[in-house]
Amino acid sequence: MSTLEENSSLNQRRKLNKKLKKYHQFLKQDANIEISDQPTKNLIICNTGLVNGLTEETIFEHFETHGVLSGIWMLPGKSFCYVSYEILDSAIQAYESFNGKLKIAQDNKSIYLLYTKKIPMQNSTTIWDELPPGLILIDNFVNLCEEQQLLDLCTFNEGTLNTMKNRQVKHYGFEFLYTINNVDKNKPLIEVVPTETNFLWSKLGKHKKEFENFKPNQLTINHYMPGQGIPHHIDTHSAFEDPIACLSLGSAIVMEFKTENKHINIMLPQRSLLIMSKESRYNWTHGIVPRKFDVVKNKSQSGFTCLKRGTRVSFTFRKVLTQPCCCTYKSKCDSVNKERTIKEEVASQLEELHVHKVYDNIADHFSDTRHKPWPNVLQFVHSFKSGDILVDIGCGNGKYLAKNPLIFDLGCDRSIGLIDICRIRNFEAFIADCLSIPLRDNSADGVISIAVLHHLATETRRIRGLKEIIRILKLGGQALIYVWAHDQMNNHKKSAYIMQDRKNRKSLSKIQAVEESQLVALSGGEISLPVHTNRSNFQANDVLVPWKLKDEDKTTFLRFYHVFEEDELDSLCRKIDNIEIVKSYYDQGNWCVLLKKTDVKSIIENKVNSQIQ
């Protein structure tokens, strides 16, 4: 080796040691991780993790080349993760080969590795060696010949097939309506469940006597290409009876089952039948992560291996329920939630108690957590030209005010405390209820209403709030509206709300539901509303969401929210005559619409022109 090469190698080693020393200090002091100065079987990837977009698949792809892995630990909201090997030599080889060289960190940067004394096993809730209560998995339920006969029922090249965002779908018996997560029981399909599937139920009765009378009348066939999946969900309680049966054909796959405190991965072998019954059907979400291969436990349970996905076709059989659900899992049951329907006469009281008074109490703390404007909203604010008037309905602490120096903007909010903060910041803001805005008709060029309509307790009041926004808009003016989404994951990406890496809300990530439901006493009667578990997916549409103050008593307030289903906000807008939906989209756990105020004549003309075209 030449002197130049030696100097270059020495400089690289110095840079690496400098980096490792920095990460050593950070992880030891800030994360309380025990770093080892001597080689161990355990490695920590110091500078990338779940929060940076790193996946188990990527880690496995590279690290398994040096030996058998005993575990991979990806921690929610963390920018580091762990890899452990079965033998020490494998860890040493990976350390030497990848340290400062393997570019799988964010923005294609190199990763940095350190040895750790132990792995924080208690932080991992992923389980491989058990099934949720009530879940049954029957391996090799059909043979190769039967599998091919079933696959021949649907070739997935017909023009009548539904194409979802992540897969192709075909329904028999009843169409599953994804906008409402249910079926229309009054509109059965012409195509019934194929008789070619009947042999499955005699087989099932022989395997499990308790299901010998199961005769489904609804079938959904999903066609998954490698890399496709399905979001976590619970099949709507009131839609189908117990059980739900899913036959996996063509390829094996890993399905995840989750509750609030448990995460179980289950490998579904090719030609296996999965039966979701009792608690597993009513209380656990299930989903498939979109990826091209799964990292799975070895049969010996002593390490991990890689399962490459192929084209998978699932046959999901259900029996439509003709009466309300009578399960015992009330917090997850839509039949119970329907009984919680909020009446108009008590809606204003509910909002006063669990919206207006709450925000007055938490105004300062709430403002401390609201700094950075969302890019899409800011882009809308900057779209207005010199002299335009923009109104922020529900402006909060005014984080979208005074962002465009060319326009005149003003905000209003129902919270006295938040308006006081706006005034301290010299923003033009005033106290007002979004249901009765004290501004003239046709006075604003633009309106934003971010995270406001979801605090209104009934559909009638939400439509009224929309009409107020349109009333103050000039003809041709535009409004941007954001509301919380019921599904906090879109295209399999978690929203910012359920990602736990936000420093200013870190303490809230540990808040659990105060209780299953809260009884709200109002003069018009009592309402029982579920209390949401923070940093988790919503289990009901009308919920109370905790806000925990940073005071000595850790005071917790409950805010009322109506979280929106997909297309629900669009549907509300369509009920107002002089609205044109310019754009609707999903943004970080919110359903969003960009509206334009127009006259009814123009809307009719546009519809006619589109039909002609």
Defining traits:
single chain, seven-stranded antiparallel β-sheet, 13 helices, 24% helix
Give the secondary structure arrangement, pairings included.
Layout: H1 3-29, E1 35-36, E2 42-45, H2 56-63, E3 69-74, E4 81-85, H3 88-98, E5 113-116, E6 126-127, E7 135-138, H4 144-151, E8 162-163, E9 168-172, E10 176-177, E11 182-183, H5 199-207, E12 218-224, E13 230-233, E14 244-249, E15 253-258, E16 263-268, E17 273-276, H6 279-282, E18 285-288, E19 293-297, E20 304-308, E21 312-318, H7 334-339, H8 344-368, H9 375-381, E22 389-393, E23 408-413, H10 416-424, E24 429-431, E25 444-450, H11 459-472, E26 473-484, E27 489-490, E28 493-494, E29 517-522, E30 525-530, E31 542-548, E32 556-562, H12 568-574, E33 579-587, E34 590-597, H13 600-612
Parallel strand pairs: 6-16, 22-23, 22-25, 23-24, 25-26
Antiparallel strand pairs: 1-5, 2-4, 2-5, 3-4, 7-17, 8-9, 9-12, 10-11, 12-21, 13-18, 14-17, 14-21, 15-16, 15-18, 19-20, 26-34, 27-28, 29-30, 31-32, 33-34
Helix pairs in contact: 8-10
